[in-house]
Amino acid sequence: MKATIVGAGFSGLTTAYYLQKKGFDVEVIESSSAVGGLISTVKTEMGLCETAANGILNSILLENLANETGVTLIQPNKEAKKRFIYRAGLKHSRTLFRWPLKFLETLRMILGLLLKRKKPRPHESVKVWGNRVLGQAASKHLLATALQGVYAGNPDTLSSSLILGRFFSRKKEKVAKPKMRGTVAPQNGMGELLGKIKSYLENKGAMFRFNTPFVLNKYINSRSKGDVLIICTGAKQAAQIFSQANTPLTNELGKIQMLPMISATVFFMKSLRDPLGFGCLFPRSSGARALGVLFNNCIFEGRSFVRSETWIFNQNELSVDEQSLSDSEFVDLIKSERFKFLRVSSKALYARVQRWPEGIPYYSTQLENVLENIKPHLNQLKKENIFLHGNYLGSIGLSNILKESAHLPNRILDEKVSP
User: What is the third-level CATH fold of 2-39+59-65+188-256+363-417?
Assistant: First the structure.
């Protein structure tokens, strides 16, 4: 059986890996010149720069994948257990808290979790759910702030069903526990994992075609009976692919909003005032332009011999003038944020600013509607041995994408043998 995979990002490579293990003859088509998509690791004289994710939540799936492809996974340093949320106005000299709620606010949250109807309602926003169940303070200072570290969206429009619904599902999968808990990373950065998967696949006979746009009609006219197609691109790219066939799916996929993201890794002179931990998130009410900051050299060993921080922004939440800043001006903006919110100032030695016009899908109530509307189209595609796989289909985060990649071959084989 032949499987054609469009897209050589994380979802495409891991899908190819699991399909090949099931005996498929795999071909990967990529429009750019390299694997990885948003994810890559850049080596600089100051240390490693991650263009997107700096780690992945560990699982048995990941450990087995890493072992088979020759990747060494490392755990965070002990100091990285500290994760902070900024909150000003409390009666403390500090503003970075591991738990940003007062006693009565915490009590209200606990009572809400015990007494309220917790399951998210259809098309209910995260803010409405949080206020209803946790109380306004916990919703504002804890829930919304924590979620923006993953979803980067506004709690007023983020979908509670898409984001929180799985925590209230009755289906509990029993899976073996990995040797290492929590977030892990390849020893030489996330780019190493993707490169090693590619090399592994090539050694097993997989074919890669780079700088090759995918033409759906051409594929349909030339494929053999039983061939499988998996579209592992972003939502906009998938919409463009299906526009060639003039299907209603094109319009629905085109409605999926993508958030423009900016990540800037800046290397500073070390200071005794540098906070130690995994990083810090900034509530919208704080006035911070950044969503949060990662303290890279505190998280994983060997990332830098100086202070390394990655500041993350949703470009839509910056002013027009700030969006048009040059890289050096953007670093000045970060230095200002750093002094205001972390209370530390030191010389910037080197910076790499990465701008993603279509960074991640917006997990809004609008996306909730789109996913409901495309279900019949996806079911029809399955009958034609065409499948979609990506972070816009209800599973954001690399660990969830990996799990879906592992399940996909069985879904495909079940579809092929069903009457």
Answer: FAD/NAD(P)-binding domain (3.50.50)
